[in-house]
């Protein structure tokens, strides 16, 4: 299992942050994720592994004036 922002999702071998976002079907364009405390930027999502029992936080960026 993987905990994502407090929700539990099934984990699978080889899962990446990009795979996890696909499972969530969340269209928000996240720029950053934290996987077990490690920061992962958007350009790393397709390579960054998500280990079993990981805790993932998706970070919303807020812009404007």
Characteristic terms for this protein:
65 residues; alpha+beta; Ubiquitin-like (UB roll); 1 helix; 5 strands
The level-1 CATH class: Alpha Beta
Largest sheet: 5 strands, mixed
- Spatial strand sequence of the major β-sheet: 2-1-5-3-4
Total beta-strand segments: 5
> What is the CATH topology descriptor?
Ubiquitin-like (UB roll)
Task: Return the CATH architecture.
Answer: Roll
Give the rounded overall mean pLDDT.
92
- What structural category arises from helix and sheet content? alpha+beta
**Overall morphology:** globular
Uncertain ranges: none
Q: What is the H/E string?
A: EEHEEE
Question: How big is the Rg?
Answer: 11 Å
Distance between the termini: 39 Å
Helix segment tally: 1
Helix content: 10-25%
Strand content: 25-35%
Notes on the structure:
Helices cover 12% and strands 29% of the residues. The chain is of the alpha+beta class. A hairpin with a 2-residue loop joins strand 1 (2-4) and strand 2. The protein has one domain: Beta-grasp domain (Ubiquitin-like (UB roll), Roll). The longest helix has 8 residues, at 17-24. The chain has one helix and five strands; from the N terminus they run ββαβββ. It has a five-stranded mixed sheet with strand order 2-1-5-3-4, with no helix packed on it.
Brief characterization of the structure:
This protein has one helix at 17-24, and strands at residues 2-4, 7-9, 32-35, 38-41, 55-59. With 65 residues, the chain is of the alpha+beta class. The longest helix is centred in the first third of the chain and has 8 residues, at 17-24.
């Amino acid at each position: 299992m993987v905990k994502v922002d407090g929700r539990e999702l099934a984990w699978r071998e080889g899962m990446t942050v990009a795979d996890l976002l696909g499972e969530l079907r969340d269209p928000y364009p996240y720029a950053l994720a934290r996987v077990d405390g490690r920061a992962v930027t958007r350009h790393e999502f397709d390579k960054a592994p998500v280990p079993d029992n990981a805790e993932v936080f998706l970070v919303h960026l807020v812009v404007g004036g």
